[in-house]
Amino acid sequence: MLDYYKMRLLQIADTIRAGGFSRLARETCFVGRVAVPVEKDVSLLKPLGDAMLKAGVEIVGISPGTFDKRELVYPVPNRYLKALYYMKIGYRGYALVSGNKVVGDIWYASSKKPGCGPVHPDIDWLGIRCADKEVYAFDMFLEQMQRGKNFAPLLMNGALHEFRKNGFTKVYGYFWKDNIPAMWVHRTLQWKELPAMKTSRFLFVKMT
């Protein structure tokens, strides 16, 4: 529990450092912000090609034991603590890795069936169905210094291919309509956009 609060405090500090208190306020307290749920049929994915090889990165599954086996390093301390927290409660993820450095990561929760891990609260909040062989992807992160280098689509596309390898047929997610980079990544990879929804938030409570 102490690690969870430490992670939250570091996350708040990093947000303030990057954009000041105004950015922290915008991200934690808002009214009428528009969320766009999306879905992706992974059976229609195009081959990855050699884009990752040219960029010098690879996709690595994140689960208990991964950090010890690969000696992976998170440059952002709060992101490492968040990874430990996510794994502890049963979520799994994929990391975009350069050498042993985690450039970015994305996390997922599978279906509501018993034995498939915890149900992510966003699934009910967004009103999506996450049936058998479907998965919800969330909280994609890219290290600040690596943004603008085309790593975001590599991370997301790599994760989509991993989902297909592991037997999933459809992936759900969402992006904020005012987050132009996120919108660009989803549209570049041809996610299907579902009806948008206005959302309000106060600290950790989100409402539609």
Describe the structure.
- By secondary structure, this protein is of the alpha+beta class.
- Helices cover 38% and strands 29% of the residues.
- The chain has seven helices and nine strands; from the N terminus they run H-E-H-E-H-H-E-E-H-E-H-E-H-E-E-E.
- The protein has helices at 2-28, 51-55, 66-70, 77-89, 121-126, 151-165, 180-188, and strands at 29-41, 58-62, 92-98, 101-109, 134-142, 170-176, 192-193, 197-202, 205-207.
- Strands 1, 2, 3, 4, 5, 6, 7, 8 and 9 form a nine-stranded mixed beta sheet that branches.
- Helix 6 links the parallel strand 5 and strand 6 (170-176).
- Helix 1 (2-28) packs across helix 4.
- The protein is globular, with a radius of gyration of 17 Å.
- The mean pLDDT is 84.
Give a brief rundown of this model.
This protein has 208 residues and is of the alpha+beta class. The two termini are 29 Å apart. The protein is 38% helix and 29% strand.
Mean pLDDT: 84
Q: Give the ordered list of helices and strands.
A: HEHEHHEEHEHEHEEE
Beta strand count: 9
The secondary-structure class comes to alpha+beta
Shape: globular
Fraction in helix: 25-40%
What is the percentage of strand-forming residues? 25-35%
Major sheet, described briefly? 9 strands, mixed
Radius of gyration: 17 Å
Q: List segments where confidence is low: pLDDT < 50 over at least 5 consecutive residues.
A: none
How many DSSP H or I helices? 7
Distance between the termini: 29 Å
